Queue: 2 jobs
Job 1
Amino acid sequence: MAKGYSGVSLPFPTLAKEALKDTQLRNNLARATTTIRNKRANVVAEVADWEELRQAGHDIKMASLANLSTHLARFEAEFTAAGGHVHWARNSADACEIVAKIALENNIKDVVKVKSLTTDEINLNEFLAKKGIEAKETDLAELIVQLADEHPSHILVPAIHKNRDQIRDLFIEKIAEAPDGLTNNPRELAMTARAHLRRRFLSARMAVSGANFAIAESGTLCVVESEGNGRMCLTLPEILVSVVGIEKILPAWNDLEVFLQLLPRSSTGERMNPYTSFWTGKGDGPKSRHVILLDNGRVQTLADEHGREALACIRCSACMNVCPVYERTGGHSYNSVYPGPIGAIITPQLLGPGEAKTLPFASTLCGACYDVCPVKINIPKILVHLRAKENKANGKLAEKFAMRGAALALSPKGLQILGKVIGVISPILSSEIMQRISRVLPVAKKWSAFRDIPKTRLIRKGGRK
Ligand code: SF4
């Protein structure tokens, strides 16, 4: 099972400490996340029923996960009836083998790729390279990180850690088609990438993609994208192989109405995405269509009644754009395809017990991620659940009970109870005598050496006191 990008299990604190020294990285991240955050906030404010849409997205996803096996069986039957080939992969090794086998049986030595987190998750490019097959990324930002021999640091903007000057220098060094005197002008950079990729699109016989959604009732796959590179890959080659996580299933076409409103606004801050491609069966486009339905830890995640909500994620990236931890440490510190708040809850669950143990602790629990999530995943609650699980596994009882308490406080009822308890004990804690005691108690003196317990006013019915 994949252990993350570096191939070794370096913990988040070690990688974050290094990343924090990089001022250029922090500047790039702050500028980029602020821009996307503001764009998102503007287009979300235009939708009067945004909260109802979020709830609908959450409900559809959770209902779909509750009957996943039924919907998957329906998808398989429909996709097959339309002339496609369905493969099942338990893990990344199975999935990579299937892709390589299809390529080699057809004597194919290079493939073009649509941006796909699922293929990054299984380390497909590296696997294909070992088999003598070159996988060429065609999304502009994915191309940038591939040319730089790096990994994406954001699920929507993979090269968010690089600025335009760094990209210009990279293109001059790595792209033969780069014109003399290339500047950092975005149009010039895009035209250089375009010239580099065009020949590949026209000559490639096989493409590899993921999918944003898989519609069970018709056996249809859907990719949403902004650049048109996806449309080229999905239509021009003879063979199309799509690697799709089993949680991407939606029962019916009608469900898409909700997600095609939620996703572009939450990800790129657009009212709708420029390209939405669907493919089912015979007709135009690739003659041979394959889909690989991937587990790779999703079934074990589904078995956790508190953690399974993470599978509702539609990979919009809104949670990382508001996360104070992500903004300072960057995506590479998470050592996972899925960085930021979603990475902190999905990576440890996909990898299983004992892996990515520090990620659930890479959060201040401020709750900003929950507020922006278009499918209302309660990320802080899952973080607390995963922390408690980790502490239990390590026998850390005090932390375990603290996390249980925090989990309780994150529910509306728990918050109400906590408010009442604090109302009663805070006047006692903030009394002069308790302040003095806290300065000598070993358990409290580190904290109270620099701070007093705040004096709290009691709020009673009928007014403030
Ligand atoms: S957890 Fe929510 S906000 Fe974060 S990427 Fe997934 S859908 Fe988007």
Job 2
Amino acid sequence: MYPTSFDYYRPQSVAEAIQLLRQHPGSKALAGGHSLLPQMKLRTSSPTALVDLGRIQGLSGISDSGGRLSIGAMATHTAIADSDLVKSACPILAEAAAQIGDVQVRNRGTIGGSLAHADPASDYPTVIVALGATLTATGPAGDRDLPAESFFTDLFTTALNPDELLTWVRVPKTGMPGMGGAYMKHKHPASGYAVVGVAALVGLEGGKCSRVSLVVGGTTANPIRAKAAEQMLTGQAPTAENVAAASAKVADAIGEPMGDLYASGEYRRHLATVLARRALMQAAQRAM
Ligand SMILES: Cc1cc2nc3c(=O)[nH]c(=O)nc-3n(C[C@H](O)[C@H](O)[C@H](O)COP(=O)(O)OP(=O)(O)OC[C@H]3O[C@@H](n4cnc5c(N)ncnc54)[C@H](O)[C@@H]3O)c2cc1C
């Protein structure tokens, strides 16, 4: 199907983009176009105008800002997966980026587009919540920083206002000794999207887990933190038995899981428990 007709703008700065979004009610930002353009062709989204972010300088950088990395919203999945800085300072993010879709999707798709789209089957939201990242929204009144956990508000819905852009993603560094992370997913065989994805971070001190972060995506509208599992493993040695017992708690955290023709809710719940066990074990091994 063809999209409905729309205007097209190519701003040179974030300020100009925000002004265009304000001036044109019903307009949308265009990043890699890998989610928005299919939606427009299916007419599940019919923006009045597209504000193309592709020519804005400085929005795709990845830099070291002390204790965290600053990643521009227009950084592509490939740039993140291939970045030596991300691979050493925040390896779980590079690991997730490398698992997104296929080469074409990774070369065009952006972290900002993925997070703003808030697809429950996407990979970054799960990892970003596990990391406790901070997302910067820039609008007419300036910047506001949002914790990742409160950024995703519902299915395909975020805390961004229509005239705001996601501009920066700040992730804490986790690539230090004694800290390990792992992102694992069950891929949809056709698209590569996460039917279920699990992000685990484990900090070890004296052979025991001093920090555990466990987040599940793909089973509910937004990623959920498996708090009971995190608490159960904290202070314990990451043995196979302890990790299995903690992972069993993931099923309760999920509540009512989503289901579709490919994977029922019950199957998703089971996958989440299995992937949580594997991701926690992998993260703990990487922390040793
Ligand atoms: C075949 C296929 C397979 C895929 N497989 C996976 C997968 O395995 N895992 C995965 O996570 N994703 C997958 N994707 C999705 C892909 O990662 C997209 O690139 C991503 O979801 C959207 O990013 P984008 O840059 O293309 O955004 P766009 O499609 O340009 O935009 C998406 C939405 O975000 C808004 N937006 C974009 N940038 C901003 C911004 N800076 N501020 C505010 N709003 C913004 C747009 O207005 C639009 O509503 C797949 C896509 C395809 C086509």
